[in-house]
Amino acid sequence: MRVVFVLPNFSRKLSGGKKVIFEYSNYLDSHNNKVSIFYPFSLYAGFLKKVRIPVFLQYFVFCLAVILLKNNWFKLNRGVKVRAIYDIKDRYFKNEDKIIATAVQTAGPVAALKISADKYYFIQDYENWEFSDEFVCNTYSLGMTNIVISDWLKKIVDKYSRKESIKVVDGIDTNIFKVTKAIGQREEHTIVFQYRSAKHKGAEFAFKAISSLQNKYSDLKVYCISREERPNNLPSSCIYLRNLTSMDVARVNNKARIFLCSTVDEGFGLPGLEAMACGCAVVSTEYRGAKEYAINGYNSLLSHVNDYKELADNIETLFHNKELESILSNNGVKTASEKSIQYSAELFEEVLKTR
């Protein structure tokens, strides 16, 4: 098959959604498919659009950046072609068999293409951050084959889709994310969490929880993983780690006893599942995406969204209850072992072949 993923923008920042797309691209390429990733300049909203230079020069620099930085934080197979295009128009799509829209911005233009290729809409979240609910929901009714990653998304999408959506749950690379150091051998009072400044990631609640804990535990050590600049309000107990590879993230996860997640809302939440695979005891808010794999009292401790005090209390519970910490860790490893990227990629390819 000749497969094209159409992404909404080009960015050097780590994104769980993009990571899944890149994993699927590598898998499809390694299974004798021709895979391309297109970045349309027309949807780019970065600094180039703010520079006072002619549009053709902006586009030239954009194309150059896509070529030079395509493997900045994720290693794509050599066979996966990455290309900048000016806009999502038929002239850029020649002999493709499958075209996959990957975001709300790309859905309409991909659906409007006149070529005969099969069209898919890979939906990894309810993307109403910059668009109205009406606009987002209308993209589900464009007639493409909708692929979703969670049960809660499926319920929403199927209200508007012309045909039932197909669920392909996100997976993780269990060859990278695994236990290399038993939780009992890790330092006391150690936490890892991943910082994002976007409002729906809820970083302010993680910071408040950490600040309350560091007043009680002088040896508190918090590994803060991010692709962004260090925030000014970072608690003093945090060790800021920027631009880590997946291997590096796995190593850091294996240093911490607890993974903290304060997300308000998200489609799935890969970092929590990756942390489970590394043996961390997960303390998270009960946002919709987490419920796809996190079960309170079995493999995690879940708190109400926006409640930093409950997050801090759950962390303290594990600080003082090593038996519960061990139970959550062991069950988390079991949960993660059943959600490998290999299985998800196989299912994704099967959908492309049969739908």
Automatic annotation (TrEMBL):
Q: Which UniProt keywords apply?
A: Transferase
CDD domains tied to this protein = GT4_PimA-like
Extract the InterPro entries matched here.
Answer: Glyco_trans_1 (IPR001296)
**What protein name is recorded for this chain?**
Glycosyltransferase
Residue ranges of every copy of the Glycosyl transferase family domain listed in the record: 187-333
The protein's superkingdom reads Bacteria
What high-level taxonomic lineage is stated for the organism?
Bacteria, Bacillati, Actinomycetota, Actinomycetes, Bifidobacteriales
Q: Mind telling me which Pfam families this protein's record contains?
A: Glycos_transf_1
A single GO BP term for this record reads: lipopolysaccharide biosynthetic process
Task: List the molecular function annotations (GO) for this entry.
Answer: glycosyltransferase activity
